[in-house]
Amino acid sequence: MPIRLPHSTPAWIFVISTERPKLARCTWTWRAIPSWPLYPLGLIPAVWLFWRGVEGHLGADPVGTFEKMLGLWAIRFLAASLVISPIRWVTGISLLKYRRALGLLAFIYVVLHVTAYVWLDIGFNDAILIRDITRRPFIILGALALLALIPLALTSNRLSIRKLGRRWSRLHRLVYLVAILAGIHLFLAFKRPTPTSELYDGLLAALLLARVVHGAFSGRRRVVRSG
Amino acid sequence: MTVFRYPTPKGSDITPRETYLSRRSIMAGLAAAPFGQSAHAAPLPTKTGPFSGALTPTDKQDVTHFNNFYEFGMDKSDPAENSGAFKPMPWTLRIEGEVAEPQTIDIAALIAQGGIEQRIYRMRCVEAWSMVIPWDGIPLAAILKRANPLGSARYVAFESVHRPSEMPGQNGGFGSLDWPYVEGLRLDEAMNPLTFLALGIYGETLPNQNGAPVRLVVPWKYGFKGIKSIVRIRLTKDQPPTTWQRMAPDEYGFYANVNPDVDHPRWSQASERVIGSSSLFGEKRQPTLMFNGYADQVASLYTGMDLRHFY
């Protein structure tokens, strides 16, 4: 049956939420490029920052810069993994096969970020660590984001996807919680919102909002069909 | 009225002769080295002042390239990069309000009068990092006395310059503060001998990125109290607003005394990262001292006050 454009829906949202993915036409070009090179490519910034830091080229506060940049790269890869679905909804191009690498890179950068904090910054001082983790919401939010990422990283293999079935998708919705926690953590990292923090917080918010919008309209479409 | 007691330095506070002599040679080397010079830096004749203790200054390169001066941008490297167009001379500083003789002080004339002291102070940022800076300047009290404060004066309000054409950070945009930047002290804090008006660092006039041509240094308070490029000092009856307190009153108080026991909501203030490690593996972290190590000189200003409430 024809789908009518609801009067309350802006046309662009309607198009995003109702257009069918044109998989057959678009995927062949992407199928040719494997996803494994993303891992070595994605780790280049970490290696570069580490080398610059060891050589003494990260400015007056090398540990602070190293720590912040690793965190920022984690956010970038998190956002990249979250942009895959909206790209498919809007253009029909499916980059799904690259999502695991992007998600795992985000996880790797979070682990490096936390390692830099615990080792290079506070020097394994458990008194500072305990004080931070119990009293500073900024650190608590970051720690929760790391905790929520661990089950996602552990179940990112094919075997888990097969074994968990529908529960796998439900479990991996935790990434939305990670995005919210990471977004607030980033916001709190600066005395004032900086152009950088506003850019990435805006991006994360837009990517989450895209889910809400898409969910609402695809839900409505299902109702129309069943009726 | 609080009575100021001159501190008696402990034996451990007095720098051994060989240490200060070697430090002087380091300083001489630094002065000669071709660091990123500010176009306006000119030598300042100074004499050694009190309160310097046994402190080793942070590298000049770091002191002049790791700055919070939002008028020139929000990154630490922005002030050094974006302050080239700022013209700190000629400059006049106005002292007014609850004073018998309001003053307009020409900064070039003030420098020419001489009597500039060097004081090596700890600098603790509210962001939990610290430096040691050799300031050149004059006690704030000396300048305030020129204006002859009235009995009704209880606070001192400071105002920075507002020049969007020369200060790109003042053109609004993301996360911008309300301009001009304003700060305040209680009058007894302002008259404390530690409170300093800096006209230079490292024996030269202030580089633009460090607050040229005249800035406040209050070493027992967090760095944001040290208002830069001051144009107006106003003595008042009531507590004046301060920029950061206006922006986020639950995070930044009027007093902003360095206090390891009162955490910032986001950062622990118990310890600090010492700026100046050259590489990733050389970071130093040290416990933060009450009043940034100046308790002997200033603790009496706050007798009977709940410093958790008045943070």
Describe it.
The complex is a heterodimer of chains A (227) and B (311). By secondary structure, chain A is mostly helical. Chain A has one domain. Chain A is globular, with a radius of gyration of 20 Å. In chain B, strands 1, 4, 5, 8, 9, 10, 12 and 13 form an 8-stranded mixed beta sheet that branches. Chain B is α+β, with helices and mostly antiparallel strands and 311 residues long. About 4% of the residues of chain B have low confidence. Chain B has a single domain, classed as Sulfite Oxidase, Chain A, domain 2 (Alpha-Beta Complex). The radius of gyration of chain B is 19 Å and the shape is globular. Chain B is built from 8 helices and 13 strands. Chains A and B meet through helix 4, helix 5, helix 7 and helix 12 of A and helix 2 of B.
**CATH architecture level-2 label of chain B:** Alpha-Beta Complex
Q: Cα-atom Rg of chain A, whole angstroms?
A: 20 Å
Please state the structural category of chain A: mainly alpha
Largest interface: A-B, 34 and 36 residues
Give the count of helical stretches of chain A.
12
Mean pLDDT of chain B: 88
H/E series of chain A: HHHHHHHHHHHH
Shape of chain A: globular
Distinct helical segment count of chain B? 8
DSSP helix fraction of chain B: 10-25%
> Helix fraction of chain A?
over 70%
Q: Biggest sheet of chain A, open or closed, and with what strands and sense?
A: none
Would you identify the regions of chain B where 5 or more consecutive residues have pLDDT less than 50?
A: 28-39
Tell me the total number of β-strands of chain A: 0
What integer is the average pLDDT of chain A?
85
Question: How many discrete structural domains of chain A?
Answer: 1
Q: Can you summarize this structure?
A:
The complex is a heterodimer of chains A (227) and B (311). Chain A is 77% helix and 0% strand.
Descriptors:
heterodimer, A: 227 residues, mainly alpha, 12 helices, 77% helix, globular, disordered N terminus, disordered C terminus, B: 311 residues, alpha+beta, Sulfite Oxidase, Chain A, domain 2, five-stranded mixed β-sheet, 13 strands, molybdenum (chain B), signal (chain B), OxRdtase_Mopterin-bd_sf (chain B), OxRdtase_Mopterin-bd_dom (chain B)
